[in-house]
């Protein structure tokens, strides 16, 4: 199957959940055995951190691949460590794809059209992992430079069966400073939403959704409900569940009545489940993978019990 949203929806229906696991490694929080393996086998700080991030993410992938449709590696944590970090990210993406997961690379790229085309060619492998160095199915994209800068991403997404998620209304505390600015009674994020919906319609697959999606934070449920209505053909990537304080009730409005149309991300809440109750009480530190597994299963049940995603079960 070539089309991004159709592939993603098939994966969501197969796994019966819209839960998305973010891969956001932080060195200070890594399990002790992973840190000592990396120290034993590498010498420079960058190589040690990169090797530890890779092992950590690959072990998470092994745990969550049978449970969820997709993962979202956060490029920033890897890029911080230069070439060693980037090589680790590249292998993590490939391994996730080999494990049958849809991979959304979270690098929030965006630039003038001709430069954006290079980003699109580099990241958007789409259906065939061999068609781009970064081998991702999908990329997060910043639309601030204007609609023409989205075009190269759209064209390459269509060609390769890839997707993008455009930042529309983000989850952070300062999201409103620019995104809520009004001109002629319309918020900036509503203008972006209208442009994204147009692209979603243009790229619609066999199902209801386009390959061009939107990032909408779970931490602003009112805006999320409004945007679901404004963008009926736009698949949503919804971050903010868990560590940023949003719960299943806050994301219920992101779905259509079949339980499709949105994927809900949790990064720290899954990656570092072992650091917080109830998992820190149930599991010893070295049992962190069991904590990852149970936290993922709990998130899946929470979404199934409190949102239309329950229809997928
Ligand atoms: O594009 C994103 O995924 C994103 C957009 C947004 O509005 N807010 C947001 O938190 N994110 C990302 O989602 C992840 C959130 O992680 P947790 O808060 O740990 O679940 C980080 O990688 C963020 O960069």
Automatic annotation (TrEMBL):
The keyword ATP-binding is annotated on this UniProt entry: no
Entries under InterPro entries matching the protein: Aldolase_TIM (IPR013785), OMPdecase_AS (IPR018089), OMPdecase_type-2 (IPR011995), OMPdeCOase_dom (IPR001754), RibuloseP-bd_barrel (IPR011060)
Record domain Orotidine 5'-phosphate decarboxylase: where: 18-283
Keyword Lyase: yes
Catalytic residues identified in the record: 108
Class of this enzyme: lyase
PROSITE patterns with a match to the protein in the record: OMPDECASE (PS00156)
Swiss-Prot/TrEMBL catalytic activity: orotidine 5'-phosphate + H(+) = UMP + CO2
UniProt keywords, alphabetically: Decarboxylase, Lyase, Pyrimidine biosynthesis
Pathway: Pyrimidine metabolism; UMP biosynthesis via de novo pathway; UMP from orotate: step 2/2
EC code(s) of this entry: 4.1.1.23
Family per record: Belongs to the OMP decarboxylase family. Type 2 subfamily.
PANTHER family referenced in this protein's UniProt entry, alphabetically: OROTIDINE 5'-PHOSPHATE DECARBOXYLASE (PTHR43375)
Name assigned to this protein: Orotidine 5'-phosphate decarboxylase
């Amino acid at each position: 199957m070539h089309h991004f949203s159709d592939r993603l929806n098939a994966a969501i229906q197969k796994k019966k959940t819209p839960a998305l696991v973010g891969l956001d490694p932080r060195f200070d929080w890594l399990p002790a055995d992973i840190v000592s393996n990396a120290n034993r086998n590498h010498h420079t700080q960058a190589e040690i951190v990169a090797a530890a991030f890779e092992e950590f993410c690959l072990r998470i992938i092994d745990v969550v691949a049978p449970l969820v449709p997709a993962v979202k590696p956060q490029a920033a944590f890897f890029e911080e460590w230069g070439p060693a970090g980037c090589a680790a990210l590249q292998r993590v993406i490939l391994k996730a794809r080999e494990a049958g997961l849809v991979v959304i690379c979270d690098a929030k790229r965006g630039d003038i059209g001709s430069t954006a085309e290079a980003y699109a060619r580099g990241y958007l492998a789409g259906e065939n992992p061999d068609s781009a160095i970064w081998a991702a199915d999908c990329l997060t994209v910043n639309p601030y430079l204007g609609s023409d800068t989205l075009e190269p991403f759209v064209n390459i997404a269509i060609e390769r069966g890839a997707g993008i998620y455009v930042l529309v209304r983000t989850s952070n505390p300062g999201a409103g400073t620019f995104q809520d600015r009004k001109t002629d009674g319309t918020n900036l994020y509503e203008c972006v939403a209208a442009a994204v919906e147009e692209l979603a319609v243009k790229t619609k697959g066999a199902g209801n959704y386009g390959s061009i999606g939107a990032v909408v934070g779970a931490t602003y449920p009112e805006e999320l409900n409004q945007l679901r209505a404004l963008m009926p053909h736009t698949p949503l990537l919804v971050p903010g569940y868990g560590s940023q304080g949003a719960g299943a009730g806050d994301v219920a409005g992101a779905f259509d009545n079949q339980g499709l149309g949105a994927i809900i991300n949790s990064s720290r809440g899954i990656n570092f489940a072992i650091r917080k109750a109830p998992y820190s009480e149930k599991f010893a530190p070295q049992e962190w993978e069991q904590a990852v597994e149970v936290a993922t299963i709990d998130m899946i049940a929470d979404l199934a019990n409190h949102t239309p995603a329950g229809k997928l079960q």
